[in-house]
Amino acid sequence: VAAGSVVSRRTGVEVVAIGTELLLGDTLDTNGAWLGRRLAPLGIPVVRRTIVGDDAAAIQQAVSAALANTGIVVCSGGLGPTRDDVTKRTIAALYGRALRRDEIWLAELRRRYAARGAAMPVSNETQALVPEGAVFFANAHGTAPGLALEDERGITIMLPGVPHEFRGLNDDHVVAWLETRIEPRAGPVRSRLVRITGIPESAVGERVDDVIDAIAPLTIAFLPSFAGTDVRVTSWGEQSAAQADSALDQAEALIRARLGDHVYGVGQTDLAAVVGAELRARGFTVVAAESCTGGLIAKRLTDAAGASDYFTAGVVAYHNTAKLRLLGVRAATIEAYGAVSEAAVREMLDGARQSAAADCAIAVTGIAGPGGGTAEKPVGTVWIGAATPQHADLKQLHLRGDRTEIRERSAQAALDLLRRLLLRARSESGGPRPA
Ligand code: ATP
Ligand code: MG
Q: What is the mean pLDDT of residues 339-348?
């Protein structure tokens, strides 16, 4: 490949993250993740990330494999002045290039040290060693320059691992340079996240199954978490931005048709923000009465700025005494049915609504574990409740998972219960359903 030639973009970019600390798990490869996010909108997908230690043989093997796969490799890390940083000489050797001293960069480094009134450590001179014929990217954020080598196997770019230097060099030089070296695609890589809750992952998969073929070449991914099972649709750049958006609109419509009320939004919106918007639209206020969720619901409802429009109070009534004193739950109810019961959650709901003079209420009482379970009420037994001026709904959950999961899932399910009651109130009043 002659200088100035273009590498096909179809195959995308490989990332090789170099650093023994990445293998030990002390540091996460956030550089690789950042580059994926940075390049996707440009229609340059990162197709694989490999992590290797500061080891010449491993680096050589990983970079060779990456070159064979796509012909464009971005390496992060191992450009430092210390003995353990071997990236530059290893990759120079892979390309059969000698290291030469770059007098201009050496002078620049000396100038920077002098400006701070310090002498440059001798070890830093290695940062001015540059492989013959390399493209040089000056580093305004640190001492190691970015370097690119190219031959008939493809391009290898080396960047320092320090995250702000890695990002800075990409933003200052590398991404723009890459774009000139890669065959343009029709459009950007674009995704839409359809947020879904209250239905198991397998059921989401079944309902959406036929959509997968209908929307090709767009692809679908299922992303389960405590919040539900989100569906991400991606257009991989075969189309212009406008075409991609309209294809994503169509895909979203198909998914909504299959999942109905289980869809609570698109993008990164939290369910609590959706509930908050619905409360505001109807002019309702809400109070949260929580036991095992320890304030998670109140926290999420107040994450949105302006939450005082609809959020009146959150009561964390953890101890039974607090349920009696603060929420008006009756001692006889707890004696007869226990604090985790339909009767208790109903009284929490009513008591909270009355004491806070709120239109709506949301309540949770359950056993988050790991202790406290019984044969009759094992860990994961949770009662949730929600009420609007028109309706109330109570529900028992049997959740699996650790303490954190049970708490998060309980909060999500309770918020969803209120969301559904608010939708019901809206449809009964003849108002439009939210988009
Ligand atoms: P320098 O130019 O500063 O010498 P370098 O290329 O030698 O940079 P490293 O020594 O490998 O960089 O790493 C410097 C710091 O950056 C370390 O704290 C390391 O944990 C962090 N780091 C390295 N690689 C990554 C990565 N892929 N993602 C996030 N952080 C990283
Ligand atoms: Mg390192």
A: 98
Which letter does DSSP use for residue 182 in this model? B
pLDDT for position 288: 98
* Ligand 1 pocket test, candidate residues 24, 27, 51, most atoms within 8 A of CB: 27
Instruction: Say what the pTM is.
Output: 0.74
Query: What's 78's DSSP letter?
Result: -
34 CA from centroid of ligand 1 (Å)? 14
CA-to-CA separations, 333 to 329, 330, 339, 368, in angstroms, rounded: 7, 5, 8, 21
| Cβ proximity of 262 and 198 under 8 Å | yes
Going by the DSSP 8-state scheme, the letter that residue 7 receives in this structure is B
Question: 282-310, pLDDT tens digit by residue?
Answer: 999 999 999 999 999 999 999 999 999 99
Is the pLDDT at 5 greater than 90? The verdict is no
Distance (Å, whole) CA 421 – CA 386: 8
Q: Rounded CA gap, 59 and 75, in Å?
A: 9
What are the distances in angstroms from CA 11 to CA 19, 45, 73, 169?
Answer: 25, 8, 11, 23
Ligand 1 site: residues with CB under 6 angstroms?
17, 19, 21-22, 27, 29-32, 76-80, 85, 142-144, 160-163, 165
25 pLDDT more than 80:
yes
How many helices (H) and strands (E) the chain has is answered by 15, 17
> Among the residues of 302-393, which ranges form H helices?
320-327, 331-337, 342-356
CA 55 – CA 87 distance, rounded (Å): 8
